[in-house]
Structure formats: structure tokens, C-alpha cells
Write a structure and sequence with these properties.
CATH architecture of the largest domain: 3-Layer(aba) Sandwich
Strand content: 25-35%
Low-confidence stretches: 1-15, 438-450
CATH topology of the largest domain: Aminopeptidase
Radius of gyration: 22 Å
């Protein structure tokens, strides 16, 4: 009999209150990570990308950790008290419990018994039970397949067309408008600017209307912006490249002081930049470049697009979806990006990690099969092969959902961070879409493009 998910916490192999230690595994090798999981006297661990939370004897763990940094240690932790909290718009909800560790867009929190059930009932997406001995997020380099391959000359040519200065100029332009989906004039100006960029590139531009709840009641109509490239040899097969162009500050209904440079002028400008880099190579498959409204109000634009694809019977024509949301901030010179999909698309994540290792070796890729809270989710829920690209320092970006989210505050590493993610993404899209000037690519799931 398969137990309900919440019972995994109750049946954790660690019975009583123990010591929970958080280890920095950013510099650990694969063998060392595995030894930590097999800690004598332990039996409870959670891999969270650059961090690992472990319950077990403190002295034994310190010995096994060796030169790895111990980030924190907590006495008398009851495994039954632990919950996962999704990072994102839940930032604006009241805090609950004590933060122990974070990674893969999730926080590990110790929550009092009287709060756990109410949190799950209030928001079962943002609050999840802990499944011990699982990987929430994984550094690509730790896996056996984490190697650097030989670059494809045609793909390399596309990668080399990415211009980070041009991309950042577009970020600055978009951030000059307040783009709350509850607004009109500024949002429409940004919408029309994006449409103009698509037109200038020779794409078939368009608007997809959808309705959503207004801030003061009733419904309002907003628009997704599309630019379509029709494939040079396989026009009926599609790749979707998307990002949301709406923004917000600490007040979800404010229509002013919402420049949204990192979140998400960076991703929307990235959609335009990928189009510039790809189109000269005349991709074999069609590509839909798309910028959504209504993301900050609950993924309204991307949900509307998925529904339209389902109604038209076209969802199965989409070979892959690449979503970009917050791609330009790095707290330091270590460039790290999180790529997030569902477990059924792990081969897709492997392909992305390999593309970064091959074309952008300075980028450390972290993968997660625990998706949450951006425009990739509606596609994943419908069964499409979708991924989210997001810089790994987004959760410590001090201007997240603030009126101070301006281009200047994206910091000194914005150009190199944005370039690294854009180059990785354009390499993957080029591989999947196929290029008129290069041989058909080998797909990560094992079949060759016809």
C-alpha cells in the first residue's frame, strides 16, 4: 500500500530530537556527498543544491565533512517538526517557524505542531511535508554525466551572437515603465515595445488576450505578446521561449514604482536576445517567442496560453519550453543558475547541464525536479517538456519585489550572469530546434531530429 505523502515525515527513520547540521557542499566531490548521506548514526538527509541538511551526531558529521564549511547547527530538532516552504510570492506571507536551510527555491523550516496543519490547509503549494533522504536540488557537476562535450560549430555560432550589453540595454528600457498587470498606460507601452522588437526581427507578431481578476473587483483584459518564427524545414514542430513582462513591488496591487528590472525585465529582454541570436541560423523547427502578462497575479498569462494550446490540439506539437525568470543577479563572481523541471523531464535537465558545461563552462548549473511558482508550471502541469531558468542567488537579491528593483541595483555581475544563462539557453534551443546550417542534433531523450 502506498502511504500518503505527509506520512513520510511521521515515519522518518530518525525517531527522537537530534542535532541537525547544515553543510556547504558547493566544493564537495560526489564521493564526499555520498559519504555524508551514509553518516554513521545518521539516516536523515536532504540535498538542497549547494547545501545539505543532515541529522546525526555532530562530532561524526564534523569528521566526515572535513574541510567543508559547517553553515549552522541546531540542537534538539524533531524531524516531525520540519516542513518545506516554497520561496517566491510566499515571501509576502507571514513568517512561520525557524529557517534552517535553503536551496532549490525551497526553505527547510522547523514549525511548531500547532501551526503545521493550518499552514498546509492555507497553502498546500507553498508548504510541503519533508520527504527525508531526497534530493531537492543537485549540482550538475556531481553526476557521472557532468562532462564537457565538443561544441557543435553551428550551435557555437549562435551562442557567440549573444550580446550582453544589448540585452542589458533592453532591461533598462523595460524597467523605465511600471509594468503592474493592474496598470494600463505603462504596461501597454512595454507591451507595444516588445511587439515592435519582434516585428523588427521579422517575426509574425501578435497579441493573445486573456481575462483576469482586477485589483478592485471585476475582470480586466490583458495581453501576452508573441513573435513567431516558422521553421525552415519542420514548421509543425515548435519550441516556446518565454518570460513574463509584468512586474510588482511589495504591494501586489500598486501600479506605480514597479520597475521590475531583475524580476522580470531581465527574462523578457532575454527572450528578445535569444530571437536575435537564433534567427540568422534559420532554425528548422518553429519557435514561439513569448512575453506574458499576469504572472505576478498567479501565472495568468502562461495559463491562458496553455489552455489555448490544449483547446486547439497543439500542445503535443511543442517539443520544448524554456522559461526565463530573474536571470541577471549574482551576489558574487561565482556564476550559478538553477534549472527547474519535473522528474519526468530529467533528461531535459541533463541536456541543459551538458550545454552549459560545453558552451559556458564558467556557469555552475544546479538542477531541481521540484518546480514551483513561475510560468513553466502551467506547461508542466499539462504534460509539456518545460524548464525554468533562474539565477541561483535570486532569493538573496535585496530588491526582490521592491520599488528599488532597478537596473543599477542588479549589481556589477549582471552582464556576466545574464550572458551565462542566455548562452546556455540559446545553445539548448539551437540543439532542439535544429539549425539550417548544421547537422540534425541528438536529443537528450535519445532520438535524432528527422
Amino acid at each position: 500500500m502506498k502511504l500518503p505523502l505527509f506520512l513520510f515525515v511521521l515515519f522518518s527513520p530518525v525517531a527522537a530530537a537530534e542535532v541537525l547540521t547544515v553543510v556547504d557542499i558547493s566544493q564537495a566531490g560526489p564521493e564526499q556527498v555520498e559519504r555524508l548521506k551514509q553518516l554513521p548514526g545518521g539516516g536523515w538527509w536532504l540535498e538542497m543544491g549547494l547545501q545539505m541538511a543532515i541529522i546525526g551526531p555532530r562530532e561524526t558529521l564534523q569528521r566526515e565533512a572535513g574541510a567543508l564549511a559547517i553553515l549552522s547547527s541546531f540542537d534538539k530538532v524533531d524531524p516531525d517538526s520540519l516542513m518545506l516552504r516554497a520561496r517566491g510570492c510566499s515571501e509576502h506571507a507571514p513568517e512561520a517557524g525557524k529557517l534552517l536551510a535553503s536551496g532549490g527555491r525551497w526553505e527547510l523550516r522547523e514549525v511548531p505542531a500547532e501551526q503545521r496543519q493550518s499552514l498546509r490547509l492555507a497553502d498546500s503549494h507553498a508548504w510541503q511535508p519533508v520527504r527525508p533522504n531526497t534530493v531537492l536540488a543537485r549540482q550538475y557537476r556531481l553526476d557521472a554525466h557532468g562532462f564537457r562535450g565538443a561544441p557543435n560549430p553551428g550551435v557555437q555560432q549562435v551562442v557567440d551572437r549573444i550580446n550582453p550589453t544589448r540585452w542589458f540595454s533592453d532591461v533598462q528600457t523595460l524597467a523605465s515603465w511600471d509594468r503592474s498587470s493592474y496598470g494600463t498606460t505603462s504596461l501597454d507601452a512595454a507591451r507595444d515595445w516588445i511587439r515592435g522588437r519582434f516585428t523588427a526581427l521579422g517575426l509574425s507578431d501578435g497579441l493573445q488576450a486573456f481575462t483576469m481578476n482586477g485589483a478592485g473587483g471585476g475582470t480586466i483584459t490583458r495581453y501576452n505578446v508573441t513573435g513567431a518564427w516558422i521553421g525552415s524545414s519542420q514548421p509543425d514542430r515548435w519550441v516556446i521561449v518565454g518570460a513574463h513582462y509584468d512586474s510588482r513591488n511589495a504591494s501586489s496591487t500598486s501600479t506605480v514604482n514597479a520597475p521590475g528590472a531583475e524580476d522580470n525585465a531581465s527574462g523578457c529582454a532575454g527572450v528578445v536576445e535569444l530571437a536575435r541570436a537564433l534567427l540568422p541560423s534559420q532554425p528548422a523547427r518553429s519557435i514561439l517567442f513569448m512575453c506574458y502578462a499576469g504572472e505576478e497575479q498567479g501565472l495568468r498569462g502562461s495559463t491562458a496560453h496553455v489552455q489555448s494550446l490544449i483547446q486547439a490540439g497543439l500542445l503535443t506539437s511543442a517539443d520544448a519550453v524554456v522559461i526565463m525568470d530573474m536571470i541577471g543577479y549574482s551576489a558574487d563572481a561565482n556564476l550559478e543558475a538553477l534549472y527547474e523541471s519535473s522528474a519526468s523531464h530529467s533528461a531535459y535537465l541533463t541536456q541543459i547541464g551538458a550545454a552549459a558545461a560545453t558552451y559556458v563552462p564558467e556557469l555552475a548549473v544546479i538542477t531541481s525536479t521540484n518546480p514551483f511558482g513561475s510560468d513553466h508550471v502551467p506547461y508542466l502541469n499539462a504534460g509539456a517538456r518545460a524548464v525554468l531558468a533562474i539565477e541561483n542567488d535570486w532569493d538573496i537579491y535585496p530588491h526582490y519585489h521592491r520599488s528599488t528593483d532597478t537596473p543599477a541595483n542588479m549589481g556589477p555581475n549582471a552582464l556576466v550572469m545574464g550572458a551565462a544563462i542566455l548562452k546556455t539557453n540559446v545553445a539548448v534551443v539551437a540543439e532542439i530546434a535544429g539549425l539550417a546550417s548544421s547537422a540534425a542534433p541528438l536529443f537528450a531523450d535519445g532520438f535524432e531530429a528527422p
